[in-house]
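Assess the record.
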Amino acid sequence: ERNKIYEEICNAKIDSEYFEEKMAQTISGAAKTKEVQCEKITVADKGKPGQGSDKRDFLLPSLSRRFCPVGLYDPHGSIPIWNIPSFCDSTSSIIIAESAVAARSHEEKEFHSILTSANLQQDLVVMERILMENIFQPKLALYRQIPVLIEPVVISDTEGEGSEEEDSEEDEETLAEANESPAEDGNPRLEQLWSYSCDLTSGHSVSSMAWNKVNPDLLAVGYREFVSQDQKKGLACCWSLKNPMWPERIFRCEHGVTAVDFSLARPNLLAVGMANGCVAVYDVRSRSDAALLDSSTSLNKHKGPVWQLRWVEQDRGATADDKKERLMCISGDGRMTQWFIQQRLDCSDVMKIKRTESGKKKLPGEKEKKSEAPLSQQAAGMCFDFHPENPDIFLAGTEEGHIHCCSCSGKEQILGTYRGHKGPVYKVAWNPSSTEMFLSCSADWSILLWHRDSHTPLLTFTSVTAFVHDIKWAPKSAFVFAAVNERRVEIWDLTVSIFDPVLCCAASPEGKLSSLLFARNAECLLLGDTCGQVGVWQLHNLPVPSAHQVRLCSQGSFSSFP
């Protein structure tokens, strides 16, 4: 029936004016090569013990097809033995098997050389950077304070123009919402951008954080873990903004990491302090996790945990080539040491922190109480901070709650002692703008503001009944500082209130906050917790101090603040 219809159409074309014969040529497009990526094809070898009869039954069909004359091979019947050549015995099968094994091993070596080649590794790094940029572009744009880019939607030719206009309007609205500040009411607030975390750091506690002095996008984080009072192995990881999901460098340590810091003169060197008193120096340019130098063989190594270490400049007015540094450490054994980096790592004592008598005055008629002799004449050191302008002056916080103002030069090392805390002093920090003021935080739930010339605190900040683990001055304001306790992070602004923080953010239910750090090139705050996460939070709408307040701060007068 279809043939009849076709014949009728052909006959109708002969006398019709609507059909005209014309030659045409199909245009073939240019050939294009596309590469695809699939999952790894797994290959498994299986076998069982075989006998000579099994080899014979396996080889007979294939050999008969190759060597039997035409017409003598019957696939459904039996095969006569005299049709098999005499040279096809068990020896040939062994040779074939050996050649197959050799070919397979050659392929495995070739695959291994490809996977470990430097070019492939570099290409994978570039691909990883591109993927991370696509995933975190809106968050990174907010961190850099640049406009957020929205990827345009590709529309096929078959769709109408109305849908194209609607999609363009939606893209404009999305772009406006992304670039719009989340704090329209003008109140200070925190917005979380992302977290530096992975499976490797899960379960560890963030003990210390430090930015690289040359590359502001490189962050060093120290991790430690305590289980039943047993210190497990620690980690020192280097995170980059280019990949917030996995660290660039991972250094595995035998003990928990308590302090990290980058060198300024040699920014590739990372100093790491550990809970067993060991100090190690790593080269972040190397992909090996072995330490460049360590103090495990030093006779002067610390006997207690290294609670803080820092690279300190010696000649601040010198050029970059002539600039020298010293690595300073404070430990639980009561020693402040200076480390020398030569062929090996060795140190000398800058000072030994001795226990001081209580500054409590005796009331009239009160008898003097006999005190028990201390187990050690030295007080455990907890923290220190060098003066922003004079590298010979530093503050040292102790476990007994005292803060010593010390000098690296001269016979009298302790210039003065500040008594105000009732518990161990966890952190001290000089004000970067008003260099005669400094902060201290303690396990007695308080934060104290001090003046260098006064041995009594100027202001006391207390908001919750929890240990205050860390404090930091804001890098761009002399009146703003941040503090973390076990429950929350607090942002204090002395120009707004000296009684309550202007901003509070509670810790996650899974863990407690342990450390903080301000970003160097962004309005962001980094918070470390006991779950191994380092959250990056953006600060919004912090008040700007007036010129009068800046003048008061430079004079060290905080009493007139609200």
